[in-house]
């Protein structure tokens, strides 16, 4: 009789754990596949791409500041019909009618000089004045003129921007790569949240089926007088607990699926089934390698240099804006006036000008000195802050490499524990069927098996989280042995 019961139990176990085909409306995803999907479809990915585009156009705007500029301006028409006061020789005022058109057109060229902060400019101008009351038309023009404007002893923003803006642009490019790798970290967490929920559901459903089968066997044993009523009640309680666990697990699967869909940008109503990930190839990741790549690739490493340069720029600006303003302007060219346009360009007359504008504070009560000292103090503070951030930067990498090695070892241990717990559970079920094990010991074997499976999934989550965190910290693909880059 017991042999027949055991055969029935084994057949039930085979049917329960046999191959189950995946429904047609199911999406099966592996972790690398989901990571790539999220990098393409997620809102976070689109936001990162938008920020990158914004930074690109800011860079193009900066570059245009050093390119020659050509502009056309004018007043077309400059028509006026009114009365205007006119001061007479005797000091009285008469209101005279004015009816004219005073139109002008200017074509200007400018080119900034980075080394000095000055500007070279050229111009050609044409002005027409028509007096409708007297029926006369006059032309005035500058066939061509060139000049140079040079601030003296002042802050040169062009020179400093040329040092800092390339750093900011490179920083933004690396920040985009970091944003993509951060998506990988985030979606890995969502992946394992759902995977653990699915594993819990599988465990709960398996436990429910096994409990129901064992309860049937126990009922047979009870009828034969082999076990007590208390053991039946214990199994019935286990069955109710298993039913509650199935309901809870289904709820967790729905919530985790919704979170994963929302973040990764997965549309549709198809059921998602996740593949249990393995491990990456046996990678030898050293602290020196990760630190080297991080200092070459991370936006933070670029930001260290950028922050120091900005602090030095602030000091230079405070010194340059010390109250003394002087600008030297010089130009030369030709101008002429005539009754028609062609005559303006015939034998034009020389025009030349040199001008030095000065503004010197006589008494500012130490304002300029205070601004300079404040900027210098801020520069020193920035130097200390950057040094501290560099140490934190390095320590974070050292810690993460150590953590990765620990998670890798932990995963091996939990995999072995899961295998042992599974074998122990199988033996416990067989012994219970044969009447060689109490219901308490069987329940303990249930719990150990479930805990071992959950621990294994958790260790996988920690391992893959540590792996993608290393990619984020170094922006280096350890499998392909190349720097991470996105087009």
What features would you highlight for this structure?
two-stranded parallel ribbon; alpha+beta
Question: How would you describe this protein?
Answer:
The protein has 487 residues and is an alpha+beta fold. The protein has ten helices and eleven strands.
Mean pLDDT: 87
Sheet having the most strands: 7 strands, antiparallel
Give the topology string: H per helix, E per strand.
HEHHEEEEEHHEHHEHEHHEE
CA gyration radius, whole angstroms: 40 Å
Report, as a whole number of angstroms, the end-to-end distance: 70 Å
Please report which band the strand proportion falls in: under 5%, 5-15%, 15-25%, 25-35%, 35-45% or over 45%: 15-25%
- Summed up, the helix count is 10
Q: Give the CA-based shape.
A: elongated
Helix/strand/pairing category? alpha+beta
Report low-confidence residues grouped into runs of 5 or more: 1-22
Count of beta strands: 11
Classify the helix fraction into a percent range. Answer: 55-70%
Question: Quick gist of this model?
Answer:
The chain is of the alpha+beta class and 487 residues long.
SSE blueprint:
Blueprint: H1 2-16, E1 26-29, H2 31-41, H3 43-64, E2 69-75, E3 79-87, E4 93-112, E5 119-131, E6 136-152, H4 157-223, H5 229-264, E7 271-274, H6 287-297, H7 299-320, E8 325-338, H8 341-344, E9 349-359, H9 367-433, H10 439-474, E10 476-477, E11 482-483
Parallel strand pairs: 1-7
Antiparallel strand pairs: 2-4, 3-4, 4-5, 5-6, 6-8, 8-9, 10-11
């Amino acid at each position: 009789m017991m042999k027949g019961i055991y055969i029935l139990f084994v057949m039930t176990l085979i049917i329960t754990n046999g191959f189950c085909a995946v429904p047609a409306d199911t999406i099966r995803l592996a972790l690398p596949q989901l990571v790539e999907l999220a990098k393409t479809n997620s809102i976070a990915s689109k936001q990162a791409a938008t920020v990158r585009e914004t930074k690109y156009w800011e860079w193009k705007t900066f570059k245009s500041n050093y390119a020659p500029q050509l502009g056309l301006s004018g007043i077309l028409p400059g028509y006026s019909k009114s009365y205007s006061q006119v001061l007479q020789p005797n000091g009285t005022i008469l209101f005279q009618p004015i009816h004219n058109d005073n139109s002008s057109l200017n074509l200007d060229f400018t080119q900034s000089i980075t080394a000095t902060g000055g500007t070279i400019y050229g111009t050609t101008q044409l002005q027409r004045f028509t007096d409708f009351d007297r029926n006369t038309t006059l032309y005035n023009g500058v066939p061509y003129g060139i000049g140079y404007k040079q601030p003296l002893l002042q802050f040169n923003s062009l020179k400093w921007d040329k040092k800092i803006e390339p750093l900011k642009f490179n920083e933004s490019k690396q920040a985009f790569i970091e944003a993509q790798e951060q998506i990988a970290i985030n979606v890995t967490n969502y992946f394992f949240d759902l995977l653990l929920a699915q594993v819990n559901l599988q465990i709960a459903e398996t436990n429910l089926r096994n409990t129901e089968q064992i309860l049937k066997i126990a009922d047979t044993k009870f009828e034969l007088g082999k076990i007590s009523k208390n053991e039946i009640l214990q199994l019935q309680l286990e069955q109710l607990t298993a039913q509650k666990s199935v309901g809870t697990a289904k709820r967790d699967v729905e919530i985790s699926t919704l979170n994963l869909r929302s973040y990764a940008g997965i549309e549709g109503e198809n059921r998602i089934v996740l593949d249990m990930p393995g491990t990456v190839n046996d990678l030898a990741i050293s602290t020196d390698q990760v630190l080297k790549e991080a200092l070459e690739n991370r936006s933070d490493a670029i930001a260290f240099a950028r922050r120091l340069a900005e602090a030095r720029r602030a000091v230079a600006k405070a010194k340059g804006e010390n109250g003394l303003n002087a600008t030297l302007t010089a130009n030369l060219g030709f101008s002429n006036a005539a009754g028609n346009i062609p005559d303006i360009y015939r034998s034009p007359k020389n025009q030349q000008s040199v001008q030095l504008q000065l503004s010197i504070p006589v008494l500012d009560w130490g304002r300029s000195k205070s601004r300079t000292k404040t900027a210098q103090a801020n520069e020193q503070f920035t130097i200390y802050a950057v040094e501290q951030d560099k140490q934190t930067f390095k320590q974070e990498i050292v810690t993460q490499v150590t953590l990765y090695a620990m998670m890798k070892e932990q995963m091996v241990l939990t995999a072995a524990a899961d295998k042992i717990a599974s074998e122990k559970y199988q033996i416990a079920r067989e012994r219970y069927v044969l009447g060689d094990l109490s219901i308490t010991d069987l329940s303990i074997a249930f719990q150990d098996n479930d805990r071992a499976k959950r621990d294994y999934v958790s260790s996988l989550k920690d391992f893959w989280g540590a792996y993608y965190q290393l990619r984020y910290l170094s922006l280096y693909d350890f499998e392909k042995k190349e720097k991470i880059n996105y087009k």
